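Entries read sequence, tokenised fold; example below:

***
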Amino acid sequence: MSRAVRQQIIEQVDHLAAHQRRQVLAFARRLAVCRRKSAAGVLRFVGCIDPADLAVMSQTIQDGCEKVDANAW
């Protein structure tokens, strides 16, 4: 995290009441737990998809997702 962002967070928290500071702390802790759980959940699938299938998926995404259909809107 950049020093500027960290400083802005501190400045904002300094203006909060004590109970709001506890809420910010609880929220930050939940974010950290969610991030760890999300990473662990995804990491268990590493290596499960055949490399050839990954290549097909990647090519399909490039072929289909990088085009704009102006008439679709």
User: Anything to note?
Assistant: The longest helix spans residues 18-43.
